Amino acid sequence: MVMAGLAFSIMNALVKAVSAELPTMEIVFARTVLMGVFTLAMLRREGVSPIGHNHRLLFARGAIGATALSLLYFALGRIPLGDATTIHYTAPVYTALTAAFFLRERIGKWVVLGTLVSLTGVVMIAQPQFLFGGDGLDPLAVGAAVAASILAGSVYTVVRKLRETDHPLVVVLSLAWVGAIGSLPFALFGGWTVPTPEAWMLLLAIGVTTQIGQVGLTKSLHALPAGQASAIGYVQILFAFVLGVVFFDTIPNGWSLAGAGLVLVSVLLLGRRVPPARVASGVRG
Question: What are the transmembrane regions (predicted)?
Answer without folding.
Answer: 27-45, 57-75, 87-103, 110-128, 140-159, 171-193, 229-248, 254-271
